[in-house]
């Protein structure tokens, strides 16, 4: 028993010493391995590197520098700790990896056609005593695919709702999706991100629901992908939106001044989706004139007449709905100048009525003036005759009567002459 205790007491110190030596060695290894991107002013042999970001298919440049060198070589290793270059010597047969520069204080290599598998930590080492290392993280961006929009398969009727879905795959990190109507950004639902099986990439999906109006017909709805791997802006897909709506209708006359005896037509123009194909012509105050001909959207007049004046209505149907509009036709007399603003702005029927009324008023006023003037003259003529008769009645003879009638001097004294 005593011998066993002695052996145990000798064994425990030996184990403790071995454990301490192992811990010290591990600490030294960790201390040398954790030296990465930091620059130590008091250690000129410490390598310096920097992290890099590159998109799939691009080229990444790895640079390692030291301030001084004791004739030791610099070395680049990949994420699997395989040596890529040891000084100027290629160690891994991969034509994508090329040497750019190798000196005692600098080692630069490039990796072209970068793949997602190239993502990770790369190590630059210098084999001094102790070995010094620095690490550079290469982040490989998965480039998102062009977005795909679904939901445009069928046209949407005015006032209805449409739900559009945008999907983009292959991004790393997950891309962001944005919706646009023409050039204006509109809000969709939050993005849904799903990881792709067996790949470090993601599929991103977004939905947009719109209540459409006729103003949305042929509007460009776009889905754009925003991602740091896209150097020249965003990737986008655009699709026109188709909205079904009833037609809005207008009537366009062949000319603004239709004249008697001319050929003439009215055209019914319907703006709808789809375009209207059925047209109906009516006259508000009766049947269509006998000299008219209906040809779908056109109403032809073979020879205009004043009897064609009236209100005409066109009704257009496109299967979604109907629209109608009216037009007042006023036929001008043949030979009326189009430059006459009075004729152009006033209907002919109204002209005749106004002129006739004015003439009647003028004739009535003139008749009244003639009547008043005649009565006035008759009254004053009787008074003159009465005074003239009075002068002749008072005179003793004919000569005196004449004198009294002319001046009424019968009552005055005769002038007397005196001779000296």
UniProtKB/TrEMBL annotation:
It comes from the Eukaryota. Residues 47-139, 147-242, 247-337 form the Ig-like domain. GO terms for biological process: homophilic cell adhesion via plasma membrane adhesion molecules. It is found in: Membrane. Keywords: Disulfide bond, Immunoglobulin domain, Membrane, Repeat, Signal, Transmembrane, Transmembrane helix. InterPro entries: CD80_C2-set, Ig-like_dom, Ig-like_dom_sf, Ig-like_fold, Ig_sub, Ig_sub2, Ig_V-set, Neurexin-like. It comes from Sinocyclocheilus anshuiensis. Residues 389-409 are annotated as: Disordered. It is a single-pass type I membrane protein. This is Cell adhesion molecule 3-like. Belongs to the nectin family. The chain crosses the membrane at residues 353-378. One of its GO terms (cellular component) is presynaptic membrane. PROSITE patterns: IG_LIKE (PS50835). Pfam families: C2-set_2 (PF08205), Ig_3 (PF13927), V-set (PF07686). SUPFAM superfamilies: Immunoglobulin.
């Amino acid at each position: 028993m005593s011998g066993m205790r002695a052996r145990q007491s000798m064994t425990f110190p030996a184990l403790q010493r071995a454990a301490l030596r192992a811990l010290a060695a591990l600490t030294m290894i960790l201390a040398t391995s954790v030296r990465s991107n930091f620059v130590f002013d008091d250690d000129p042999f410490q390598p310096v590197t920097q992290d890099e970001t590159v998109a799939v298919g691009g080229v990444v440049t790895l640079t390692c520098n030291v301030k001084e060198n004791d004739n030791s070589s610099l070395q680049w290793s990949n994420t699997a700790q395989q040596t890529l270059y040891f000084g100027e010597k290629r160690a891994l047969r991969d034509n994508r990896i090329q040497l750019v520069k190798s000196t005692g204080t600098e080692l630069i290599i490039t990796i072209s056609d970068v793949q997602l598998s190239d993502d990770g930590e790369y190590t630059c080492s210098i084999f001094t005593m102790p070995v010094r290392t620095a690490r550079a993280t290469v982040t490989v961006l998965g480039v998102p695919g062009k977005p795909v929009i679904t939901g445009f398969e069928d046209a949407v009727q005015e006032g209805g709702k449409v739900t559009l879905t945008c999907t983009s795959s292959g991004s790393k990190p997950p891309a962001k999706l944005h919706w646009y109507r023409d050039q204006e950004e509109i809000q969709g639902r939050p993005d849904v991100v799903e990881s792709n099986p067996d790949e470090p990439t993601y599929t991103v999906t977004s939905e947009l629901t719109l209540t459409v109006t006729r103003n949305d017909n042929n509007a460009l709805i776009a889905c754009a992908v925003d991602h740091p791997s896209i150097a020249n802006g965003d990737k986008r897909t655009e699709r026109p939106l188709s909205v079904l709506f009833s037609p809005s209708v207008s009537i366009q006359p062949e000319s603004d001044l239709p004249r008697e005896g001319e050929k003439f037509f009215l055209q019914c123009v319907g703006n709808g989706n789809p375009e209207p194909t059925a047209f109906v012509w009516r006259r508000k105050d009766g049947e269509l004139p006998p000299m008219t001909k209906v040809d779908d959207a056109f109403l032809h007049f073979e020879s205009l007449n004043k009897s064609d004046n009236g209100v005409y209505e066109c009704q257009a149907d496109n299967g979604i709905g109907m629209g109608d509009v009216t037009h007042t036709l006023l036929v001008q007399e043949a030979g009326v100048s189009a430059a006459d603003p009075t004729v152009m702005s006033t209907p002919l029927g109204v002209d005749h009525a106004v002129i006739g009324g004015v003439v009647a008023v003028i004739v009535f006023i003139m008749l009244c003036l003639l009547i008043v003037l005649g009565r006035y003259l008759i009254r004053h003529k009787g008074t003159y005759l009465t005074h003239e008769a009075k002068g002749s009645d008072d005179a003793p003879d004919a000569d005196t009567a004449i004198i009294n009638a002319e001046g009424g001097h019968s009552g005055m004294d005769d002038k007397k002459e005196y001779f000296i």
